[in-house]
Write a structure and sequence with these properties.
Blueprint lengths: L10 E2 L9 E5 L2 E6 L5 H9 L9 H11 L2 E6 L11 E8 L3 E6 L14 H12 L9 E3 L7 H6 L3 E12 L4 H7 L2 H13 L3 E4 L3 H17 L7 H11 L3 E8 L2 E11 L2 E9 L8 H15 L4 E8 L3 H8 L4 E10 L9 H12 L4 H11 L5
Parallel strand pairs: 6-7, 12-13
Antiparallel strand pairs: 1-2, 2-3, 3-4, 4-5, 5-6, 7-14, 8-13, 8-14, 9-10, 10-11, 11-12
Helix pairs in contact: 2-8, 6-9
């Protein structure tokens, strides 16, 4: 792959069946570079490691690469001839607008280091901190889901650049009991209303379904004065994730009124995207789809339904998710070295983007999204 570690201090190891690895010495530490898309050991590590999530999978990483040109790279202390025991996963971002950096991971709610939060994490991240300037990285960004990494990150000089709530619904109880715990007015009654008025669900990954989903997404993003993600992103997700992705569309008399995109990995399902036509909000289509997604998650053996992150200032979204699941944890994003970053200026940038997009026709918002998103991962 196009290595992020190109400089004279590194020497290539032999090419192996699983891909190309590189090693560098920093005292007694020795790191190897692994290509998760080519090295067969990567998926084995992801399947076995307790901290792994859907965002570590090859399908997700391939969609990031194909859509935005981000090259995934993992750093490990496992030699090329040994099984992978632990690793840090990043994507390399090269942008003339926002600079060159490595992020774990772009457009992912979180991406836990596949190691413990103490000595193992320090031994893997330390050499990357030491060689950051030589690699021309503006900064390293990590998005752990386990608070056990926070103390070590702070000791190693990382600074906080984002805080979020995390919502997870426990699926261990019977479906009737889960439904009973959901908000009576905002969820239960709206689900039953959608069923009574004849809202129907279609779960398939056909070109028609993807087109209907994307039209709803464009409409939803425009409603919030934001550009939509590129159409190619969702097409690549459908191609790469296979059976690990569900696309659920709600129709009323053959009119698409709402849609959700759900991911699955091991014993967890993830609500990643939702969109709707505001003219049909009275039908209760989004609660209807989410409840159907939860029932399906239980049927395939998921024990947790992850509703993703919510910013501390996203009051409407926070209230919506609280109707389904209480706040079950927090996420902290970390950056090294301290100083200005894309995230630290994101609030101002977001306000500026919204003010501009408010006057951009919907047909042009797609172009804005295609150009903009690859720079802000």
């Amino acid at each position: 792959m196009g290595s992020l570690l190109d400089d004279a201090s590194l020497q290539d190891s032999p090419v192996q069946e699983g891909g190309l690895t590189r090693e560098t010495g920093h005292g007694v530490a020795r790191l190897y570079e692994v290509d998760p898309l080519r090295d067969r050991r990567w998926q084995s590590l992801v399947e076995q490691h307790p901290h792994a999530s859907v965002y570590h999978t090859v399908g997700w990483l391939e969609a990031l690469r194909r859509t935005y040109g981000y090259e995934p790279v993992a750093f490990t202390d496992s030699p090329p001839t040994a099984d992978l025991k632990r690793a840090l996963l990043f994507c390399g971002i090269r942008s003339w607008l926002t600079g060159r950096r490595i992020v774990s991971l772009p457009f992912s709610d979180y991406c836990a280091p596949l190691c413990d939060g103490g000595t193992e994490f320090g031994s893997l991240i330390g050499p990357l901190q030491a060689t950051r300037v030589n690699r021309q990285w503006k900064y390293l960004e990590i998005r752990p889901v386990n608070g056990g990494f926070d103390g070590t990150a702070e000791k190693l000089g990382f600074e906080t650049i984002g805080k979020y709530f995390l919502h997870r619904l426990d699926l261990e109880s019977a479906a009737e009991e889960i439904f009973r715990r959901l908000h009576k007015d905002s969820v239960q009654r709206r689900v039953r209303h959608a069923e009574r008025v004849g809202v129907v669900e279609l779960c398939e990954k056909s070109p028609r379904s993807l087109k209907d989903f994307y039209q709803l997404l464009v409409r939803t993003r425009a409603r919030h004065n934001l550009p939509p993600q590129p159409y190619a992103w969702f097409r690549n997700l459908l191609d790469g994730m296979g059976s690990a992705l569900d696309l659920r569309i709600a129709y009323k008399e053959q009119i698409p009124v709402a849609a959700v995109l759900i991911l699955h990995f091991k014993d967890k399902s993830y609500y990643k995207y939702g969109c709707s036509d505001e003219r049909f909000h009275h039908l209760g289509s989004i609660p209807f789809l989410l409840w159907r997604a939860i029932l399906n998650a239980k049927s395939i053996g998921s024990r947790t339904f992850d509703l993703g992150r919510t910013g501390v200032d996203q009051h409407g979204l926070l209230q919506f998710k609280m109707h389904w699941a209480p706040v079950s944890g927090s996420l902290t994003y970390w950056k090294f070295p301290p100083g200005p970053s894309l995230n630290s200026s994101l609030s101002w940038n977001l306000s500026f983007v919204k003010s501009v997009c408010a006057y951009v026709p919907k047909r042009l918002l797609r172009i804005v999204g295609t150009v903009l998103y690859r720079h802000i991962g």
